[in-house]
Amino acid sequence: MATAKKHKTRIEAKCALWLARHPAALAAPAAISTSVLELGAVTTGGIAAGVVATGLGWYRAHPASFTTHAAPRIRSARRRWTRYHGRPWRTTLDACNLVTEDRRTGELHVPRIVKLSSPTPSIDVVRVRLCKGQSLRTFQDVQEELASALGADVLGIVKTSPRLLTLTLVHGNPFDDIVPPAEIPDEADDVDLTALELGDTEYGQSWTEPLIGQHWLIAGATGSGKGSLLWNPLRAMGPMIRDQLVKVWMIDPKGGMETELGRPLFHRYATSADEPVEDEDGDDQDPMLALLVEFRDEMKARQEVLRDRKQRKFTVAPDTPFHVLMIDELAMLTALGGSRATVTAVNKILAEILTQGRAAGFAVIAYVQEPTKDIVPVRDLFTRRIALRLGSSGYVDIVLGDDARLRGALADEIPETDHEGIGYRTSEKSRNPIRVRAGHTTDDDITELVRQCTPHQVPDDGSNVYAIHAA
């Protein structure tokens, strides 16, 4: 009986297929060779030097746009050839038993990299096409071994189509040291409400966020470092709070354990431990709901002022201060605490504030552990979102947007120990996640803030001695 011939893919065919998938590998040498032949080696060298000089000039003149647009492409090309190419890639997968063998020909098949991107210095996102006979489970069974072989501290594996996986690799911790708290500016004029300092980015730059005209939602599990993102914005705004150009309203459904130390800073303050207050009808009302209603009414009054002045947007001034409402654990107001009538009223008023407050100079900063829609119905009305360590992989996309985890925001994989304040945010110019770490604040830092920035007011007798404004 005749045996079937074993046909292996010839090396010429493999080269042709590889060049078809990587046209730049042929186009670049061809372009250089043509330039040398047509223009000469000196002219070609001058062009290359000009390109390099242009890139360096771009980086020096506007590093932010270079980091956003050029750096990821340069980084992706370099890492493709140094980490995920040829023999090293094949050897790595072979060591983890992720190659298959054709039983007829004995030829080894290696999962092929379809696309590689490196949105940040520590994140690689690799799209891999599986060989026949492989599945998501094939890679998940050796996930730890593959992470170790690729030198990744964290490896996420997600199925994106029947034969396509996305590997998200996080290398190292760019925040080896504790990040100091935000500096308290000397004067109100030194405060920039469009760029409040919160900590550092993984690029080694200051992490700033705009608050004026924005609403922040900060999600993180217990112990993830949400407290640092409560006190750092206050430190960054300190002189404006002192001069009452910024008025902070604080709602603490956890009874004031976290916020009591900073109480003198707050224009209004309510906790779950406070006694009920009377509403307009003489009925008892939850004190936190009462404060929320007062904040909404203040916003309505501001809208009337701006309308009378024929102003579409407000300007920070003594008679029109910037109002900031901070809610430490939003879920206790929007879903888990109080009666159904109270929860309904809270969500209705919050939606009103979040949709109308920006132009009038009213902002909301809310903190939550579980950001699902049934817990935070008004979630989509927050314009800025930050994800610290989260308790579920599904929460990542909920907070940062669709496919944020695929692009590298592995917030559910952040270790619990020694990683407080580390999280992800998405860039305002792209959807790529950036790792950040909030400045660590201690009780001494909060005490310093209270001592330097407690609001003051001029006494009625007109003297120049400032009196403490009680919260």
Q: Could you explain how this protein is built, in words?
A:
This protein has about 475 residues and is α/β, with parallel strands linked by helices. It folds into two domains: about 70-170, Threonyl-tRNA Synthetase, Chain A, domain 2 (2-Layer Sandwich), CATH 3.30.980.40; about 190-470, 3-Layer(aba) Sandwich (Rossmann fold), CATH 3.40.50. Helix content is about 35%, strand content about 20%. It is built from 14 helices and 20 strands. The strands form five sheets. It has a ten-stranded mixed sheet. It has a four-stranded antiparallel sheet with strand order 3-4-6-5. The protein has a two-stranded antiparallel sheet with strand order 1-2. Strand 5 and strand 6 (about 165-170) form a beta hairpin. Helix 2 (about 25-40) packs across helix 3, helix 3 (about 40-60) crosses helix 4 (about 65-80) and helix 10 runs parallel beside helix 12.
Provide tags for this entry.
Threonyl-tRNA Synthetase, Chain A, domain 2; 2 domains; 4-stranded antiparallel β-sheet; globular; 10-stranded mixed β-sheet; Rossmann fold; 471 residues; 14 helices
